[in-house]
Write a structure and sequence with these properties.
This protein has 250 residues and is an alpha/beta fold. It has one domain: Vaccinia Virus protein VP39 (Rossmann fold), CATH 3.40.50.150. It has ten helices and nine strands. The chain has a seven-stranded mixed sheet with strand order 3-2-1-4-5-9-6. The chain has a two-stranded antiparallel sheet with strand order 7-8. It is globular.
């Protein structure tokens, strides 16, 4: 797990892969825009971002907030996160910390707690989220579907990666959240990532980025060779990229 988390430390690579995914996505709408249209932003003044990385979620925010806190285990993300959030908030804070752990704010403090593609690393943080979230606040989670592994599992067994995703996935998210939250709304985001035959280099970069995710199951070079051969044979490859948005409150 720690090697997977470590792969989130390089800000430049994450921005590059984000652009690559956008380029090859069948769904042209940014999932953050879907989220933004579902939230009543005038009521959001204080934000906590769990596993914030370089500030991917905040990149699409507009308006002015009182307080934004990002928590991430990689100090290398601090400068990028603050460069994005300081223009958005009167006070912007980056905390270097592994989750789950206590969060040093009073109870009922945040209007919005967000966890974008990160909660499967630390689902044990949910009692802490419930404590720091205001009674009328929103807990936002964006996560993957377990079906994202289907294409690769035609050739390989990704047992360890599946265990990570199953810590909190589109399929089991409601069940996990319902232990702590009473009002849960789901929004599905349907997407495929498509690579054509002439886009081998992009596919290689995408699989290289997933290296640490699959390392415990199979050598990523073997995966890369296999999938490039499949791309040659078929002329096009589609990878499931369906995600789910959860909006929960106490």
């Amino acid at each position: 797990m720690k090697n997977i988390i470590k792969s989130y430390a390089d800000f430049d690579i994450h921005r590059k892969i984000g652009a690559l995914i956008k380029k090859h996505s069948e769904n042209s709408q940014d999932i953050r825009d879907v989220v933004n249209s579902a939230i009543n932003w005038p009521h959001i003044h204080t934000i906590l971002d769990l596993g914030c990385g370089y500030g991917w979620f905040e990149e699409r925010l507009e308006g002015k907030f009182d307080y934004i806190m990002g928590i991430d285990c990689h100090p290398s993300n601090e400068q990028a996160f603050l460069s994005i959030t300081m223009p958005l908030a009167r006070t912007s804070v980056f905390v270097t910390r592994y989750l789950p752990s206590p969060i040093d704010v009073p109870a009922d403090f945040f209007d919005l707690v967000a966890s974008a593609y990160s909660l499967y690393f630390f689902p044990e943080v949910l009692p802490v989220v419930k404590r720091v979230l205001k009674p009328e606040g929103i807990f936002l989670v964006i996560t993957h579907s377990e079906a994202m592994l289907e294409e690769g599992e035609m050739f390989f067994q990704f047992d360890n990666l599946r265990k990570v995703i199953q810590n909190f996935s589109a399929e089991n998210g409601v069940e996990i959240l319902s232990t702590y939250f009473t009002d849960i709304t789901i929004i599905d985001y349907y997407n495929n990532i498509i690579f054509n035959k002439e886009e081998k280099e992009d596919l290689e970069q995408y699989i290289d980025f997933k290296k640490e995710f699959i390392a415990k199951d199979v050598d990523h070079e073997v995966v890369k060779t296999t999938m490039l051969c499949e791309l040659d044979r078929r002329g096009i490859l589609r990878f499931n990229k369906n995600d789910r948005i959860f909006l929960a409150s106490k």
